[in-house]
Amino acid sequence: MKEICIVEFPSNLGLKEPQPGKEPGVKKLPDWLWKHNLHKIILPKNIIRLDPPKYSNSRDPENQLLNSNSLVDYAREQAYLINNLLSQNKFPFILGGDCSILLGAAMALKQKGNYGLFYLDGHTDFMDISLSETGGVGGMAASIVTGNGTEKLTNILNLRPYINEENLWCVGNREYDDAYENEIRNSSATYISLASLRKQGILKSVQSFLSEVKNKDLDGFWLHIDLDVLNDTVMPCVDSRTPDGLSYEEFNELTSLLFQSNQLTGLEITILDPDLDVSGQYTKEFVQQFTTTFKTHINLEV
């Protein structure tokens, strides 16, 4: 039986400042979830925290990205930590942070074998720097870990690609813009927008993914959860709000199917910004919904 280890990566390195001189508040997410009892309910075997380098809002002149050198240093430390947990047959339950925390996990997975990535997000995060208005790596994380973009971030420790592009499933996007969607449409990844997910059904979509993991004989898969995949009315405290999104009923159905798979290697939760949920009402509801589904359905037998 795998032991759950909560890993805290309180990083905002992949986001721009919400206003001049103010850092993105998502770095407070692990402490915020602790305050709202997520750790107490999950009851991990242990809790590890890895603080990131100092945040800067200035772009790297070489590649126009925010915090690119810091992201490389942080990803190497993250990968080392996660690699050790996987070697001990533990289940990393990661609390971000913005979506750029995926880099370290993806590197560790590459060091271990050939893994799939189920990228559950209200955006594709599959974007070239030329399309980015902010330079934030959080909006390019899925693209970078599959080997697209600047060498500095895509080929850390000569591991490019960390996840093979054809093993990426990008699910839940609702930013319906051709220039944005064409990036993922023209890749070899599987793209299921929110509209497509509802059309073909959650059960069928997840079963297709799990069948592919099995048929390709992958070593497992990683689950990325950006909380902006949830409906904007139940999760408005995110950095890039978009109308619509999954209801909790849909979200719980989808995640429960993934939790039941013994191929699930680890997961990460990103983007809820405590600064945007001062009363904690949205966080309380999320913790209640997520922990109930997780504890009911998780299958950690090897």
Overview of this protein structure:
By secondary structure, this protein is of the alpha/beta class. Helix content is 36%, strand content 14%. The protein is built from 11 helices and 8 strands. It has helices spanning 29-35, 38-42, 68-87, 102-112, 141-145, 151-154, 178-185, 194-200, 202-215, 248-259, 281-297, and strands at residues 3-8, 46-49, 90-95, 116-120, 168-171, 190-192, 221-226, 264-270. Helix 10 (248-259) links the parallel strand 7 (221-226) and strand 8 (264-270). Helix 3 packs across helix 4 and helix 10 packs parallel to helix 11 (281-297). The longest helix has 20 residues, at 68-87.
Q: What is the H-and-E element order?
A: EHHEHEHEHHEHEHHEHEH
- Structural class computed from helices and strand pairing: alpha/beta
Could you name the ranges where pLDDT drops below 50 across 5 or more consecutive residues? Answer: none
Adjacency order of strands in the biggest sheet: 2-1-3-8-7-4-5-6
* Rg computed from alpha carbons, rounded to a whole number of angstroms: 17 Å
Number of helices: 11
In this structure, how is the largest beta sheet organized? 8 strands, parallel
Strand portion? 5-15%
Helix content: 25-40%
Question: How far apart are the first and last residues' alpha carbons, in Å?
Answer: 6 Å
Give the averaged pLDDT, no decimals: 96
Principal-axis shape: globular
Number of strands: 8
Brief overview, please?
The chain has 302 residues and is α/β, with parallel strands linked by helices. It has helices at residues 29-35, 38-42, 68-87, 102-112, 141-145, 151-154, 178-185, 194-200, 202-215, 248-259, 281-297, and strands at residues 3-8, 46-49, 90-95, 116-120, 168-171, 190-192, 221-226, 264-270.
